[in-house]
Amino acid sequence: MIAEHDRVVLRIDLPEHQLVAGDIGTVVLVHRNGAGYEVEFMALDGETVAVVTLLPAQIRPIAQREIAHARLVAQAA
Q1: Which CATH number fits domain 7-61: 2.60.40, 3.10.450, 2.30.30, 1.10.3860?
Q2: Would you kindly state where each structural domain of the chain is located, as residue ranges?
Q3: More exposed terminus of the chain, fewer Cβ within 10 Å: N or C?
């Protein structure tokens, strides 16, 4: 079960939030025993890119032996 403060992987693209499948976020709130999650996605410099409410099917736990990959996020206008 995914818990608060767990790091998770986004399964889908969310272009309205400048997020793509594979981005890593941190669960900041668990809704109704896992019915949904508030997930914060941050740039490597510590700036919050988005905080998004997601369903369980839209995220997954980080698996063993996965490696992170950096990408540039466009600046907000």
Answers
A1: 2.30.30
A2: 7-61
A3: C
Extract the tokens encoding 65.
């032996």
Whether 38 contacts 25, CB under 8 Å: no
Number of neighbouring beta carbons within 10 Å of residue 53: 11
Q: What is the pLDDT of residue 75?
A: 74
Sheet containing 7-10: which strands, arranged edge to edge?
48-54, 36-42, 24-31, 7-10, 59-61
pLDDT higher than 80, residue 76: no
Q: pTM (2 decimals)?
A: 0.92
